[in-house]
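in:
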C-alpha cells in the first residue's frame, strides 16, 4: 500500500525581501501507483509569476501521470518494454499541459501595470510570455513492478530500494548544454528532461526536493543520510509529519535561506517489513559520518 507526504516552506531570504514562496509540491497515491512531485519557480526578475508556474508544473505532472494510468493494466504491460518512448511522451505531455495552464492563466489575468512597471518597454517586449511562469520540475513515480522519474532543472531525486541504501538515480542536472538553465518555460523544454527507469528493484521510498534542501547540507553524504533517517520514521508518519515540517523550516531559515520543498511516496508494507534494515543503515551512516569527520580533522591537524 502506497502512502506519502509533501510540504513547502518559505526561505528566510524571501521573507526578508517580501517575495512569496516560489516552490510548490504535491503527492498522489492510488492502488496502482504513487507520485511525488516538486517544482521551484525561478527567482529572477523576468519570471515574476514563477510561483504560479511552479504550481502549474506540479498540477500538470499529477494530471499527466494519471492520464497514462487511465488503464493501469495496459500501462503496466506496455511500459517496461517501451519505457524510453513512453517517458518521452510523458515529458512532452507535461510540458504541453503546463503551457495550456499558463496560456489560460495569462488570458484570464493579463499582465498588470505594477508587474510591467519593473521593466522598460524594450525589456518587457523581449520576454516570452511563458517565461513569466518559469519553473523547474522533479517527479518520482512508484508503480507495480517498476519505478521511474523525470526532471527538468535543478533539485534532487533520492530513492531507497529494498537494500535500504539512499541513492541518486539521476545525475544532478542544474543546467542544460551551453549553460542555458533548464526550465519548463524553454521553447525546447521537452528535450531538456533527465529521466530514470528501474524495473528490478522495489522502492521503499522515493523523494523529490527542490535545490534549497540539497544546498542546506555540507555534503552529498549528509544529504543522503538525511533521507535514510526520514525513511526510518515513515512507520510513524502522522506523528513525524510535524517534525519534518519543523526541520525544513529550520533549514530554510538557517541553511540556504531558500524556499524548500520535499515530497515523498513510499510502500508502507515494505517499509514495515524492512524497518530493521533501514535502522541498521542509519547506524552505519552515523559511524561512517564520524569516521569522515575524524579523517578530516586529522588532515587539518597535519
Amino acid at each position: 500500500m502506497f502512502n506519502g507526504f509533501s510540504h513547502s516552506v518559505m526561505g528566510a531570504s524571501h521573507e526578508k525581501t517580501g517575495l512569496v514562496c516560489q516552490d510548490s509540491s504535491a503527492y498522489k497515491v492510488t492502488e496502482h501507483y504513487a507520485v511525488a512531485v516538486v517544482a521551484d519557480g525561478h527567482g529572477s526578475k523576468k519570471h515574476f509569476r514563477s510561483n504560479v508556474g511552479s504550481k502549474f508544473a506540479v498540477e500538470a505532472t499529477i494530471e499527466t501521470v494519471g492520464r497514462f494510468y487511465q488503464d493501469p493494466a495496459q500501462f503496466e504491460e506496455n511500459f517496461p518494454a517501451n519505457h524510453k518512448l513512453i517517458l518521452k511522451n510523458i515529458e512532452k505531455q507535461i510540458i504541453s499541459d503546463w503551457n495550456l495552464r499558463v496560456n489560460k492563466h495569462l488570458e484570464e489575468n493579463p499582465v498588470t501595470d505594477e508587474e510591467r512597471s519593473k521593466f522598460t518597454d524594450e525589456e518587457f517586449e523581449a520576454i516570452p510570455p511563458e517565461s513569466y511562469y518559469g519553473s523547474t520540475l522533479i517527479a518520482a513515480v512508484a508503480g507495480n513492478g517498476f519505478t521511474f522519474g523525470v526532471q527538468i532543472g535543478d533539485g534532487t531525486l533520492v530513492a531507497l530500494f529494498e537494500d535500504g541504501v539512499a541513492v541518486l538515480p539521476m545525475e544532478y542536472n542544474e543546467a542544460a548544454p551551453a549553460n542555458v538553465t533548464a526550465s519548463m518555460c524553454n521553447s525546447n523544454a521537452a528535450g531538456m528532461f533527465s529521466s530514470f527507469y528501474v524495473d528490478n528493484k522495489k522502492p521503499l521510498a522515493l523523494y523529490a526536493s527542490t535545490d534549497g534542501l540539497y544546498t542546506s547540507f555540507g555534503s552529498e553524504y549528509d544529504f543522503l543520510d538525511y533521507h535514510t533517517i526520514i525513511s526510518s520514521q515513515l512507520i510513524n508518519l502522522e506523528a513525524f509529519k510535524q517534525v519534518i515540517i519543523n526541520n525544513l523550516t529550520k533549514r530554510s531559515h538557517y541553511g540556504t535561506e531558500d524556499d524548500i520543498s520535499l515530497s515523498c511516496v513510499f510502500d508502507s508494507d515494505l517499509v514495515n517489513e524492512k524497518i530493521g534494515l533501514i535502522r541498521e543503515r542509519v547506524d552505519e551512516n552515523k559511524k561512517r559520518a564520524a569516521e569522515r569527520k575524524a579523517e578530516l580533522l586529522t588532515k587539518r591537524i597535519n
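note: The chain has one domain: 2-301.
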